[in-house]
Specification:
- It is a single chain.
- By secondary structure, the protein is mostly beta strands.
- It contains four helices and 18 strands.
- 14% of the residues lie in helices and 43% in strands.
- The strands form three sheets. The protein has an eight-stranded antiparallel β-barrel with strand order 2-3-4-5-6-7-8-9. A seven-stranded mixed beta sheet has the order 1-10-11-12-13-14-15, with helices on one face.
C-alpha cells in the first residue's frame, strides 16, 4: 500500500467585475462573479424603486448566466417581483448588448463599463484539487474547491485581514502573498486529512472529506461594501455543514462595521423585539404563541452579528444550530430600512443610503 502525498489539480478561474452604466435610459450598477464560465451576481437601478410588502425598495435583480467561448455573456435576471429578463452581449472591460424582458418582443440596449472609482477592486483566486488516502481502487479521498476574492491595493489591508479571519481562521496565512494563500491552505487541509484517517481507516466510505467555498460581493458603492463567504465541509458523520458569513465594511472610514456601530446599546432590546415580530409574521404566529412553537431553541431572538445591508434593508443571518436544529437550515430575518431607521446611531454609515 502506497500513501499518496500529492493532490490532483483541475484548472479554474475566478474573477470579479463591478460595472456602471446605462440600461436604456436608466442608470445601473452591476456586481458579477465569474467562476470558469458561470456568472452570478446582481444589478441595481439606483434611480428606480418598486413597492414590496408595503415598503418602497430599490429595484434590483439577481443574475445568473454563462460566458461562451466568444466572450459573449447571457445572463438571466430574476427581480423580486415581475417578469424575468435576459442581458446578452459582449463581455469585456465594457459589457454591452441588449436586454429583453420575457414575453416581450422589443429589446433595450445597455452599455456598462468597469469602474472602481468610489468602490474597491478585487482579484479572484481559486483552487480545485483532490487526493486519495491510499493507492487502491476503492480508497477514500478528499476534495477541496475554493474561490476567494481579495482586495487589491495596500489601502484595503483591513478588508483582506477580516476576510482571512473569517474564511480561514488561520493567522499563519496572513503573512503569505495572495497567490500563496490557497496552495498553502490546500497543503494544510490534505495533511490534516491524511493524519486524521491513515491509522484508523477500516475500508468504509465515511472517510471521505469534502470542502467547498466561494465568496461574493453584493454591494460595492457609496463607501459601503458587503462581502459574503459561503462554505461547506464534510469530514464524516451524518451530514456535512454549510455556513455563510457576511462582512460589511465602511470603505470611507477603513473599518469593518459591527452592529454596535449601527445601533446603540439601548436600541438592541427594541431591535430584538422587531426581529421577533418579523419572525412571527413570517411563520403566522399570534402574539401570545411562543417562538419555540416553530422549532426555535428559545423564545427570544438576539440580533446576529452576521448581517448584511442593501439600499433598502438590513438582514440578520443565522446559520444552522444558532437559532434552531440543523433540520431547519439557516434562517434569515430581514427588516426594511423604515423599520429600523429610528433606532440607528446618528452617525451610522448606512444613512448614506438614504435611510
Amino acid at each position: 500500500i502506497t500513501l499518496i502525498a500529492y493532490a490532483q489539480e483541475t484548472d479554474c478561474d475566478f474573477e470579479y467585475r463591478h460595472y456602471e452604466g446605462m440600461v436604456d435610459h436608466d442608470t445601473a450598477l452591476m456586481e458579477l462573479m465569474i467562476l470558469n464560465d458561470e456568472i452570478k451576481g446582481s444589478i441595481v437601478y439606483p434611480e428606480r424603486s418598486s413597492l414590496y410588502n408595503g415598503y418602497t425598495t430599490l429595484y434590483a435583480e439577481r443574475l445568473e448566466g454563462v460566458l461562451d467561448h466568444y466572450d459573449v455573456a447571457t445572463l438571466e435576471s430574476y427581480p423580486v417581483k415581475g417578469e424575468t429578463g435576459e442581458y446578452s452581449g459582449t463581455f469585456e472591460k465594457i459589457f454591452r448588448g441588449t436586454y429583453r424582458v420575457s414575453r416581450e418582443n422589443t429589446a433595450k440596449t445597455f452599455h456598462l463599463a468597469e469602474n472602481y472609482e468610489g468602490s474597491v477592486a478585487f482579484k479572484g483566486y481559486c483552487i480545485n484539487r483532490d487526493t486519495v488516502l491510499f493507492d487502491t481502487i476503492d480508497t477514500p479521498g478528499a476534495q477541496l474547491k475554493l474561490a476567494i476574492l481579495l482586495p487589491e491595493g495596500d489601502s484595503a489591508e483591513y478588508i483582506r485581514n477580516a476576510i482571512l479571519r473569517v474564511y480561514f481562521r488561520n493567522q499563519n496565512l496572513f503573512e503569505a502573498t495572495d497567490n500563496e494563500i490557497l496552495p498553502l491552505y490546500c497543503k494544510e487541509y490534505f495533511t490534516k486529512y491524511i493524519e486524521a484517517n491513515i491509522d484508523i481507516y477500516d475500508g468504509g466510505h465515511a472517510f471521505n472529506w469534502e470542502m467547498s467555498g466561494i465568496t461574493s460581493i453584493s454591494m460595492n458603492r457609496n463607501g459601503l461594501l458587503v462581502y459574503r463567504a459561503d462554505n461547506y465541509a464534510y469530514t464524516g458523520g451524518a451530514h456535512g455543514m454549510g455556513v455563510s458569513r457576511f462582512l460589511v465594511f465602511d470603505t470611507q472610514e477603513h473599518r469593518k462595521l459591527e452592529i454596535s456601530q449601527l445601533f446603540p446599546d439601548e436600541a438592541i432590546a427594541e431591535l430584538s423585539k422587531r426581529l421577533e415580530n418579523k419572525y412571527r409574521e413570517m411563520h403566522y404566529l399570534d402574539d401570545d404563541e411562543p417562538l419555540s412553537e416553530t422549532g426555535l431553541f428559545d423564545d427570544h431572538i438576539v440580533p446576529s452579528p452576521n448581517y448584511w445591508i442593501t439600499e433598502s434593508s438590513i438582514s440578520f443571518f443565522y446559520n444552522p444550530y444558532e437559532l434552531a436544529p440543523y433540520a431547519m437550515g439557516s434562517i434569515t430575518i430581514s427588516l426594511h430600512s423604515d423599520q429600523v431607521k429610528d433606532l440607528l446611531r446618528e452617525d451610522a454609515p448606512v444613512k448614506r443610503l438614504g435611510w
